[in-house]
Each structure stands twice: as C-alpha cells, then as structure tokens.
Design a protein that fits this description.
2 copies of one chain form a homodimer. Chain A is an alpha+beta fold. The first copy, chain A, is built from 5 helices and 3 strands, in the order ααβααββα. In chain A, strands 1-3-2 form a 3-stranded antiparallel sheet. The longest helix of chain A has 16 residues. Chains A and B meet through α1, α2 and α5 of A and α1, α2 and α5 of B. The first copy, chain A, binds a DNA duplex through α4.
Chain lengths: 93, 93
DNA sequence: TTATTATTTGCATTATTGTGCAAATATACA
DNA sequence: TGTATATTTGCACAATAATGCAAATAATAA
C-alpha cells in the first residue's frame, strides 16, 4: 500500500463517490450497486474499482458471477494516520 | 480545505517530493531551496507550490523578493485524521 | 447446448494535467 | 535611473487519465 498511489486513487471525484458509497454500507456490494452513486458508465465504475483495488483501498470477492467490493477500512485509516503523524513531525513519505 | 483538493494536490510525485522537502525543515524556505528536491524547472516548482497552497497544504510569506513556504502541519494532519475516522465509521467525505 | 446476467477489457476520443521556455512582474540595490 | 535576483505567468506541447461503446470473458440457469 503506497501512499502516493492511495492519494492518486482518491484524487478523482467519481472514485471518491464510489468510496463514500462503499463506506456507507455495512456489507460488501457488487459493481452494479456501487455504480448507482455516479452517472458514468458501468464499465467506468469497474475501472475505478480496479484502481481503488490496486491501491489497496478496497478488496474484491468473487461470488458466482458477481464481484463484491468492500473498503479496507483499517488499512486505509492507518495509512492516513501514519501520513498525518509524519507530516506533524518531520518527514511525510 | 477540501478533502478532494488535498488528495489531488498530493497525487503527484513532484509535489510529494516538495512536501517532503518542506516537511523536513524547521523553518520556511524559498522557491529556489524547495526546487532542489526535484529535477523539474523552477517555474514548475512554483506552480506546484501554488497548487499545494490552493489546497491549503502550505502557506506562503513574502519577504522582500523571496517567497517563503511552510507546511500547514496541524491542518493537514487534522484533515487526514478526520478522513481516517470517517472511513473507519461509515462515510468518508 | 443456448441464453442470460455480471463484470471486465480493447479501442478511440476527449479532457485534464505536467512540463519547459521565454517573457512578465516584483523587489532590492548600485 | 538601470541592473540583478526571485518568482510567477503565458503559451505550446507532451504525457496521463477519464470516458463511452462494443466486444470479450465468466458464471449460472433453462
């Protein structure tokens, strides 16, 4: 989980919407459900999810023909807090 | 200080280098000093600093012909921690 | 098998962003 | 005044990234 990749992944409005949507749910949801939060094509949402997944922000579970995504809450929160700590002391890598 | 704008500002390798450079110093430094951390043109560094400033990540103080930049450590750290908390509970706006 | 549904991927296009150079601006000093 | 230094800005171009559509893949059911 690389800091810069995480920030890049979070630097797009649709991906933020997607993340918010996923965050607001208790259980994982499939691509179609996620796509409800933004107006772009479903294929675009699929790509955004892939970017979030590559950044380690979300994880995917395939069940049957559906893929369920959920947020890696602890890991993302930990990385943000670590970055916050680094900025407060001296170096923020 | 908008979350998405902050993430956008942090989503570039040179801006991360610049931020790291600024973070590693106790006192503010001018554009020329900041520019030492990356190989791009000084004018590019100036633009990157403007982006970081617009995002609220750094502040600028003009003294004479120089402009001294410093990181808004507390504010940035607070925003990152707030985002971390939002992600951990439910909604991450 | 075929059909249906969910998701991903190839491709072309558009939009955005980063970059370097030169010129402009701002400040200080001789 | 003119000159030197620090920074920003205009502009063109290159590099990245987002998007939509159609086709491909994967899994399930008739």
């Amino acid at each position: 989980m690389k800091t810069e990749q995480v920030f890049k992944a979070l630097a797009d409005p649709n991906r933020m919407k997607i993340l918010n949507n996923l965050c607001s749910r208790d259980c994982a949801c499939n691509v179609g459900e996620v796509a409800g939060c933004c107006t772009v094509d479903l294929s675009v949402v699929s790509r955004h999810l892939a970017i979030l997944k590559n950044a380690g922000i979300v994880s995917a579970d395939k069940r049957g023909k559906e893929v369920f995504y959920h947020v890696n809450r602890k890991e993302v929160a930990a990385l943000l807090r670590q970055t916050a700590a680094n900025i407060e002391k001296s170096c923020c890598s």
